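Re: [ENG-882] Designed sequences occasionally contain unexpected residues at chain ends

Forwarding the minimal case from QA. Structure tokens:
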């Protein structure tokens, strides 16, 4: 996975920067996150609903109203918690959770 992330950076023209990437769950790895951080790239990675993720979610104390990209209030709620991976050199990151009546992740 890390090699797949590195390739676009190698192809960037001089002076250009990748500002944001959105990735699927197979990229939820410490080496990928560290690489992106080192390059100053913001990222969002979907994660699988495993035991560690469920445990982290249980620590959310406040659920806020979620607004869509136009600022319109939705029925969804969003919660956030600071999390770290065992192999991530203790670099904490924010995990955000989205839930609706029909979908609770």
């Amino acid at each position: 996975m890390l090699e797949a992330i590195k390739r676009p950076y190698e192809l960037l023209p001089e002076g250009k920067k990748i500002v944001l990437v959105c990735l699927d769950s197979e990229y939820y790895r410490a080496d990928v996150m560290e690489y992106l951080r080192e390059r100053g790239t913001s990222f969002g990675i979907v994660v699988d609903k495993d035991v560690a993720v469920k445990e982290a979610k249980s620590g959310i104390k406040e659920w806020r109203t979620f607004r869509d990209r136009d600022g319109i209030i939705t029925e969804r709620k969003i919660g956030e918690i600071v999390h770290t991976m065992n192999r991530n050199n203790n670099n904490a990151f924010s995990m955000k959770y989205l839930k609706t009546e029909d979908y609770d992740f």
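QA comment: On inspection the terminal residues look reasonable. Residues 50-105 form one domain. Proposing we downgrade this to a documentation issue.
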